Amino acid sequence: MEETIQKLAASRDLDDGELSFVIGTDRFDVELKETADKKRREIYGDSVFIRGLIEFTNYCKNDCFYCGIRHGNKNAERFRLSSDEILECCEEGYPLGFRTFVLQGGEDPFFDDRILCGIVSSIRERFPDCAVTLSVGERSRDSYLELYRAGATRYLLRHETADPVHYGKLHPHVMSSENRKKCLFDLKEIGYQVGSGFMVGSPYQTVRNIISDLRFLQKLDPDMIGIGPYVTHSETPFAGFPSGSAELTLRLLSILRLMFPHALIPATTSLGTVSPTGREDGLRCGANVVMPNLSPVKVRNKYLLYDGKICTGEESAQCVACLDARVRSAGYRISVDRGDVRRDGVTE
Ligand code: SF4
Hints:
The chain has 14 helices and eleven strands. By secondary structure, it is of the alpha/beta class. The strands form three sheets. It has a six-stranded parallel sheet with strand order 2-3-4-5-6-7. The longest helix is centred in the first third of the chain and has 16 residues, at about 30-45.
């Protein structure tokens, strides 16, 4: 094995110069993939955890320059699911084996604490053996606390880029990297299992930015880490920028597995969008989570953060069957438990 990769696997770290070298070349890719797979199997065996994704609102008050459902895109067809519709998604997902429901949406002021807490507690009451994950952006610490008390125990909030200057190139000035990071530490302090992550190949991104992302993740020490290639949306200010590559995303997935051996890491839909075998390759490179879509088919093609998004036409059962086949073909098996994080072999 290459000495550098051996060092990364043993110490879970490299210095900036070494990281920069490994990120910038394909010469370590085979070793990285094999070492990352060995590490995931040591901790999680061949299990791949499934999360039922429910995209429940594509209204958003923000204007992130890369996002297809940004407030400024007047051509986006907007939708909100009702509480009953969200619960129906869970009803459909439970018999399919889902024990985690991920409620994902834009930053939609309609879903204030009262409404969102009501939805979370209804899901917990009806499905007490299931975890509820929220992915609804930046909110106040008090709001996060209310939602935690209502029964949400996991929260996904990608930091997107840890470098404040790069962050400023991807977002309008009313948003800040500082607040995004504060939200993440608030969530952690409250007791959530926290997920963060970043886009690969976003406009203006440098290798130095990626190293900042890895350093920030070391500081945050999240339970879940989601990365996916930036994928262009034609109705954004970044329409002229190329999408990120599957190759670099896969390399970074392996690096993440070695730096954060316990982490729950999804093989994302965006990776499957830029490469037909992206999700299978992602699993082989260290990812251990897939997130089939449980949203009603009628709204699937409206939640378009980027162009060409896959899996917008299938019913939930078809999505699960397709992913099950993909997971098997990659050499793993879908696990139907809650899939909590395992730190030092202990399931939390
Ligand atoms: S990335 Fe998230 S916060 Fe930004 S515009 Fe899109 S949905 Fe809203």
